[in-house]
Design goal:
Elements: H1 2-51, E1 57-61, E2 66-71, E3 74-85, E4 90-98, E5 103-110, H2 124-127, H3 154-178
């Protein structure tokens, strides 16, 4: 019996190690998830504040994927995440629109564009071109729109334009349906 009992010891020991590891990881996840969520909300708050200088607060409708931006109790605009594919991979953009449905600003949340070229999509000189544009004006100037592409980064520029325009069309139909 002594020999058979020693054969099971490694199995029992490994089972206990795995069980303790799972409990530790679950506990760590529950602690860090809350902190990560708070950090993401603070980052969104800061970006919304850049897009809407008059903002006091905001609410988020998870079902519609829409932030309502408030000054006091009055809605002064809306914002949403637009996701698309750039030259280097996925990109995520926070887009703000005013109550007239024109763009009030954009902020890149993440991208994988080439450093030095495509990554210039984060520069204010590129992003500020979107301010005041309606959905019909959001296109590269070479395609009849009002956004100038970044020299040497036409694909990245086009990806931002297409991502913002596509998401804006979707959210406008949602906002117009809801009144």
């Amino acid at each position: 019996m002594g020999k058979k009992g020693s054969e099971f010891f490694p199995v029992i020991f490994l089972t206990l190690v795995v069980l303790i590891s799972v409990v530790a990881l679950t506990f760590t996840d529950s602690i860090t998830r809350e902190r990560i969520g708070a950090a993401e909300e603070e980052e969104i708050r800061e970006m919304l504040g850049e897009i809407f200088q008059a903002m006091n607060s905001f609410t988020y409708n998870e079902e519609e994927g829409l932030y309502s931006v408030l000054k006091g109790n009055e809605t002064i605009g809306y914002a949403f995440r637009a996701t698309g594919k750039g030259y280097g991979g996925d990109m995520s953009i926070l887009v703000g629109i005013g109550d007239n449905f024109a763009v009030t600003g954009i902020e890149l949340l993440s991208h994988q564009e080439t450093p030095g070229l495509g990554a210039k999509i984060v520069e204010p000189s590129f992003q500020e071109q979107f301010v005041g544009l309606t959905v019909d004006e959001i296109a590269l100037s070479q395609n009849g729109g009002k956004v100038d592409a970044i020299t040497g980064a036409t694909i990245s520029s086009s990806a931002v334009v297409d991502t913002v325009r596509g998401a804006l069309l979707e959210k406008l139909s949602l906002l117009k349906e809801g009144g």
